[in-house]
Specification:
Elements lengths: L1 H9 L27 H20 L5 E6 L2 H10 L3 H7 E7 L7 H4 L1
Amino acid sequence: MGKLVEVLERAGYRDGETLFGAPYDFRYAPAPPGTANRVVSRFRQRLRELVERASRTNGDKPVILVSHSQGGYFALDFLNRSPLPWRRRFVKHFVMASTGAGGFVLLMQ
């Protein structure tokens, strides 16, 4: 992910202004639908707040979510559980880099 951040910074993105990170401890898998997981719930809430703050900081523009590796699954889970009006308001694009999109399917259903 470090190289991607470097490329984005060279393209003009600035850490804390137009470029934000949401690291996640991969040892905590998202809970299956209908099952609670405090760690994942806290992460989703913090990610929602980060997306909203990033949008506000940048003139209320929707954000571009970029994920890497297993982070793609967590971001997809987050988006799938977010209401459609919220997604339309705050997320312009979702990019999954190096995510094995063919795997991990049962957990995401």
